[in-house]
Amino acid sequence: MGAGHPEQPDRLRAIERSLEHERFQSLARVQAPAAARDVLLRVHPESYVRRIESAQPREGLTALDPDTLMCPHTLEAAMHAVGGAVAAVDEVMSGAADTAFVAVRPPGHHAGPSTPMGFCFFNNIAAAARHALAAHGAERVAIVDFDVHHGNGTQDIFWSDAQVLFCSTHQAPYYPGTGATSETGEHDTIVNAPLWAGSTGDDFLEALKTRILPRVRNFAPDLLLISAGFDAHRDDPLGGLRFTERDYSEATKRLMDVADRSAGGRIVSLLEGGYDLDALGRSAAAHVLALMGA
Ligand SMILES: [Zn+2]
User: Fold this and answer.
1) Would you say the pTM of this structure is higher than 0.70?
2) What is the rounded average pLDDT of the residues 182-197?
3) CA R_g for the chain
4) In this predicted structure, what is the pLDDT of residue 294?
5) Dihedrals φ, ψ of 5, to 5°?
6) DSSP notation for 84-101
7) Which residues are designated catalytic?
8) How much distance in Å is there from the Cα of 136 to the middle of ligand 1?
9) Backbone angles phi, psi at 65, to 5 degrees
10) For 281, which of 14, 21, 34, 258 could close a Cys bridge (C-beta 3.0–4.6 Å)?
11) Computed from CA positions of residues 60, 65, 66, 68, in that sequence, does the dihedral angle turn out positive or negative?
């Protein structure tokens, strides 16, 4: 997205580096394939997909909003980000893998049905949820989003969808300004647990325990998806929360317990934000290690 932009290629390099450790030797690693167009069209209208396609510059950068820029390779990356999410759902729903972590960029949770926003073009996790429902016979999918920013795009997409429970912890008041507890959706399937600036991992784990996990348990999803942004880490330059990698590990274990009850342990986690490269690498490693059951 241009020099100095926090949503940069080094983010994935930092994660890859931290997953080179021998503890991760048994991980199956798969390249994210490009998404088929019909997978995108379950979330975004065709007119929007065409608008994004035609906005991509042949050279240089085009800004879709002040934070969200396209270069000549953005579309390809965005298609592989959605494709990776959907391929991970295939792996986990078919039983080929128990859990999966999808390390892709650009992120997706700010992208609404027809709105690019906040470094996001296509909503990767929404495509993953709709794919589980449409292609794997899932009846209910739960999404837990612990990025420091509210996943407003995901909330918009599933506002009136009774088959998808969307739960979020996020800093508030903060960008993008949504995510109040009063936003509950048409079928009471939206659960927002905002956290004040300065909140710690203990506050996060408490919100999970009291506000979110009981709702996921009651919903009894066939698949649990995680919008795993690591920008609530205390070292993150964008966020104002104070989580540590240990908190991400603990939260992941608690989410796995809930997934064990109704979803056969099936979890697909997708990278969203996380902009301090060291903290991102360590946090993703802690998250993946927990997902591996280690
Ligand atoms: Zn974020």
Assistant:
1) yes
2) 98
3) 17
4) 82
5) -75, 135
6) HHHHHHHHHHTTS-SEEE
7) 110
8) 29
9) -150, 175
10) 14
11) negative
**137 CA to centre of ligand 1 in angstroms:** 31
- DSSP character at residue 137: -
Distance 175 CA to ligand 1 centre (A): 9
Is there a cis peptide before residue 176, judged by omega within 30 degrees of 0? Answer: yes
Structure tokens at 157: 């997409």
Rounded Cα–Cα distance for residues 216 and 244 (Å): 24
Domains defined along the chain, listed by start: 10-291 (3.40.800.20)
d(CA 281, CA 261): 30
Ion ligand 1: residue ranges with CB closer than 5 A: 147, 149, 229, 231, 273
> How far is residue 119's CA from residue 116's CA, in Å, rounded to a whole number?
8
Q: Distance (Å, rounded) from C-alpha 272 to C-alpha 123? A: 10
Q: Which two tokens stand for residue 143?
A: 């999404």
Q: What is the pLDDT of residues 283-292, one digit of tens each?
A: 999 999 999 9
pLDDT more than 70, % of the chain = 100
Give the span between the Cα atoms of 103 and 64, in whole angstroms.
Answer: 24
Dihedral through CA 218, CA 176, CA 270, CA 186, nearest 10? Answer: 30
Q: Which two tokens stand for residue 133?
A: 């429902």
- 16-29 confidence digits (pLDDT tens): 999 999 999 999 99
